[in-house]
Design a protein that fits this description.
Strand content: 15-25%
Structural class: alpha/beta
Low-confidence stretches: none
Radius of gyration: 26 Å
CATH architecture of one domain: 3-Layer(aba) Sandwich
CATH class of one domain: Alpha Beta
Largest sheet: 9 strands, parallel
CATH superfamily of one domain: Class I glutamine amidotransferase (GATase) domain
Mean pLDDT: 97
Shape: globular
Length: about 675
């Protein structure tokens, strides 16, 4: 089967979603000409075209798509051809209303939007496979088609009786017996014990809190059910075309699907990325998401969707500047993307996304946005040598979907300790320093990482515990954040001093979780320990820890409040295991994390000896991306002469960047 490298062939892909069904044939020809002018090389076609391809059951109208594909191919533009199954046609919902999803109150939803399907509906699955078969057989030999695209942003959750039956089958395969489910979930609480499979239902809305074992496993089931939808369409495609790669688009840190369990099924990992231009933290958050995608792919990935300017679905849609659009695209490439696509090519005059930006705006080609689109096309052509290159990472951040789901169930000590904010807070100092980071599973092979960070890893099964302890035994360095290793793989709280699986290695443990009142508490260096971290402030969360013996070193203590004088940051004496039991202010967190990097001898791979504040630096292979986020000009020092790859200009000892400016450098040849 094919791969992303088969598509790029030494260059970066460029393009976006194309919905020709919204336009006349005359516009199609104008589109292809404008795409060529903009340097477009790949477009996604057919995502929402089911009602036009099959306007009535078993009546297919395909000639218009023939014409579209022929036009694109004649223009030298390749196609990522989608199955249109994300949005079933109205006739299907009317023929079989049970194809529609049901919400957690048991109410059936209606068609008239998108993603209006039940993943467990046999009718929906049958019709999805039929339209997929028709598409695959019709265009398997078309020279424009280089990639198959299954569905779109798979993420629908349904709570209907069909899903209930499928869920019970999933539980039986996972646990074997009802008694094993009872044991895993601990159903003796609140008289929830089951004596038959039929008694187990989806987590429908109830008078009070639902059992966390039930809700966790239903999320796992939903992710698996959606993956099975993907597999079923992929199998149809594979039977017709065993050669071309197959993809479906992810949505970053999306809570509805465990993408890590999907990654091995996807030939080309692709992602939709929409950082908020109004959020000053958006660049670092986008970089973190890109690192997740590269880690899932094990190398290059594809940015399937981004916005050229404003989106249409935020309450207040701040547009991007053209400089910001360029930054977002170059950042994705610097973090491993081998292609940059946008939603969409031509702005739609109707429908819910009529105010979503596009590569070709309503106002036409003589616009700020479209000129920037053309310039970005030229930039990506100049950066063709970046395709296929690696991002070197000696640091891993641990992230697990089941742990995320379990940590944010109701009735935990605080709903203010959230997983993604913790992940982003720990990542940002590394991003600011230009440190390469992989985002990996706690079961992954960690041997190549000199530092492993777990900002908030609430759920940790026994296999992951064994893996992390083995990493430490081989000389690794692991830093755990607050509320980590609390529960086992079934979300059952581990009894004993926490973090239970590592307390013996730490020679310290916790006995009580202690959410802080408004105002938080101070943080001060331990009187007899190192003082390099300085003082700081803790907000939201704390834990009551105690040291057991000489194997534990306290680095920070709380000051003031109920925990005055108690340990806040503890490490093992050999420096291998660290446990931070609170949420320190950003400055103190940064000092601590940079200190860990220094202890492990980890530095950035780029050749910028001193990164000024407000400047972003990322390294991919021999290429260095530098972005100025400051409102003023800045000079960025260089350790050796570098060539500006986009402008073909050599810089000897520094580069000068205007506000919002970005540059891609490569070390100059002697």
């Amino acid at each position: 089967m094919g791969s992303l490298a088969d598509l790029t062939r030494g260059g970066l892909l460029y393009g976006g979603d194309y919905n020709p069904e919204q336009w006349s044939r005359e516009i199609w020809r104008q589109d292809v000409a404008a795409m060529r002018e903009a340097g477009v090389t790949l477009v996604t076609v057919g995502v929402f075209s089911w009602a036009l391809l099959e306007p009535e059951r078993d009546r297919f109208e395909l000639a218009w798509m023939d014409e579209v594909l022929d036009l694109l191919h004649a223009g030298g533009i390749a196609v990522d051809l989608a199955t249109p199954t994300a949005s079933p046609p109205p006739w299907l919902a009317l023929e079989d209303p049970e194809t529609l999803p049901t919400d957690a109150s048991g109410h059936r939803l209606h068609h008239g939007s998108r993603t209006h399907y039940c993943p467990s509906s046999s009718t929906y699955r049958e019709r999805a496979q039929i339209i997929t078969q028709v598409i695959a057989e019709r265009w398997v030999s078309h020279p424009a088609v280089v990639l198959w695209h299954v569905n779109n942003e798979l993420g629908t959750t349904c709570w209907c009786p069909r899903c209930g039956r499928a869920f019970r089958g999933w539980l039986e395969r996972r646990y074997g017996t009802v008694e094993a489910v009872n044991e895993a979930w601990g159903t003796t609480v609140w008289s929830q014990r089951y004596t038959s499979w039929e008694q187990i239902s989806p987590p429908l809305r109830a008078p009070y809190l639902l059992h966390p074992g039930l809700t966790l496993d239903y999320r796992r089931f939903t992710s698996d059910a959606l993956r099975e939808l993907y597999r079923s369409e992929r199998a149809v495609i594979r039977a017709v075309d065993p050669a071309r790669p197959v993809t479906t688009n992810f949505m970053g840190f999306f809570a509805g699907v465990d993408y890590r369990s999907w990654a091995g099924e996807i030939d080309v990992i692709s992602d939709d990325s929409y950082p908020d231009p109004a959020d000053p933290d958006a660049p670092s958050q986008a970089a973190l998401t890109h690192d997740l995608m590269r880690s899932l792919a094990g190398g290059p990935w594809l940015l399937m969707e981004q916005a050229t300017s404003a989106v249409s679905w935020r309450g207040h849609n701040v547009p991007k500047t053209t400089a910001r659009m360029r930054q977002d695209a170059l950042r994705a490439v610097a973090h491993g993307a081998d292609g940059v696509l946008s939603f969409q090519w031509r702005a739609s005059p109707t429908g819910p996304e009529r105010f979503h930006s596009a590569m070709l705006p309503h106002a036409g080609t003589d616009t700020r946005v479209h000129r920037a689109v053309q310039e970005l096309g030229r930039d990506l052509r100049a950066l063709s040598a970046m395709a296929g290159t690696d991002v070197h990472a000696e640091v891993a951040i641990l992230f697990d979907w089941s742990s995320w789901w379990a940590a944010e169930e109701p009735a935990v000590p605080s709903d203010r300790l959230r997983v993604l904010p913790q992940l982003r807070a720990w990542y940002r100092p590394l991003w600011e320093a230009g440190i390469g980071v992989d985002v990996v599973d706690p079961h992954a092979d960690l041997a190549r990482y000199r530092l492993v960070l777990a900002p908030q890893l609430y759920l940790l099964d026994d296999e992951a515990v064994t893996n992390l302890r083995g990493y430490l035994a081989r000389g690794g360095c692991l830093a755990l954040g607050p509320f980590s290793a609390v529960a086992d793989g079934n979300a059952r709280v581990r009894t004993g001093g926490f973090p239970v699986p590592f307390a013996d290695l730490l020679d310290a443990s916790g006995e009580e979780w202690w959410p802080l009142p408004e105002g938080g508490a101070g943080l001060v260096p331990d009187a007899v320990g190192p003082t390099s971290l300085g003082t700081g402030h803790a907000e939201t969360w704390a834990e009551r820890l105690r040291l057991h013996g000489p194997g534990a070193v306290c680095e920070l203590r709380f000051e003031g409040g109920d925990l005055d004088g108690e340990p806040a940051l503890v490490r093992s004496r050999d420096g291998g295991l660290h446990y931070l039991a609170t949420m320190p202010d950003a400055a103190l967190l940064k000092r601590w994390l940079l200190g860990l990097l220094a202890r492990r001898g980890i530095g950035p791979a780029h050749r910028v000896p001193a990164v000024p504040d407000g400047v972003e630096v990322a390294q991919r292979g021999p290429f260095t991306l530098v972005i100025n986020h400051r409102p003023t000009e800045v000079d960025v020092p260089l350790s050796t002469p570098h060539l500006d790859v986009l402008e073909d200009v050599e810089h000897v000892d520094h580069v000068h960047l205007s506000p919002g400016g970005s540059i891609v450098l490569r070390k100059a040849l002697p």
